[in-house]
């Protein structure tokens, strides 16, 4: 039964990711040289992961395992995009746009880890 919750969460996370990336394309066009949509998904996903993880271990300790699975494994697993990040970085390298590839790696790693930390800090400070 837990697998069904993960499945549902992954579907919702995938749709949320799709909508965010489509919104980026609508604002700045589909032909961006830099994969901004993937960066935003990874950064926001890392923040949400840190926040929810912190809340679940510090504040929401009685949260049902089904909801934990739906949110952390399902939704955020479907939402975040490390495989897309890897392919886009490879493509940038393949096209010899080394500076964009390195920028993509640095921003995804530094911002994602920073946002995970920020989410944990916010979760620990959360009052309710």
Explain how this protein is built:
83% of the residues lie in helices and 0% in strands. The chain is mainly α. The protein has one domain (2-125). Helix 1 packs antiparallel against helix 2 (36-58), helix 1 runs parallel beside helix 3 and helix 2 (36-58) runs parallel beside helix 5 (98-125). The protein is globular. The model has no long low-confidence stretch (mean pLDDT 91).
Features of the shown structure:
128 residues, 83% helix, mainly alpha, 0% strand
How are the elements arranged and paired?
Elements: H1 2-28, H2 36-58, H3 65-79, H4 82-94, H5 98-125
Distance between the termini: 30 Å
Question: Into which percentage range does the β-strand content fall?
Answer: under 5%
User: What value does the Rg take, in angstroms?
Assistant: 16 Å
Range of helix content: over 70%
Number of strands: 0
Number of domains: 1
Query: What's the story with the biggest beta sheet?
Result: none
Query: SSE string, helix = H, strand = E?
Result: HHHHH
Mean pLDDT: 91
Outline the low-pLDDT stretches: none
**Rough shape?**
globular
Strand-pairing-aware structural class: mainly alpha
Q: How many DSSP H or I helices?
A: 5
């Amino acid at each position: 039964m837990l697998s069904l919750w993960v499945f549902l969460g992954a579907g919702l996370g995938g749709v949320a990711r799709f909508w965010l990336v489509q919104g980026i394309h609508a604002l700045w066009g589909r032909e961006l040289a830099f994969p901004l949509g993937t960066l935003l998904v990874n950064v926001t996903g890392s923040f949400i992961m840190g926040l929810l993880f912190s809340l679940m271990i510090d504040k929401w300790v009685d949260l049902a395992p089904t909801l934990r699975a739906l949110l952390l494994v399902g939704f955020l697993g479907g939402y975040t995009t490390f495989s897309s990040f890897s392919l886009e970085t490879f493509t940038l390298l393949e096209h010899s746009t080394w500076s964009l590839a390195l920028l993509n790696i640095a921003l995804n790693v530094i911002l994602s880890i920073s946002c995970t930390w920020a989410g944990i800090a916010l979760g620990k400070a959360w009052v309710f």
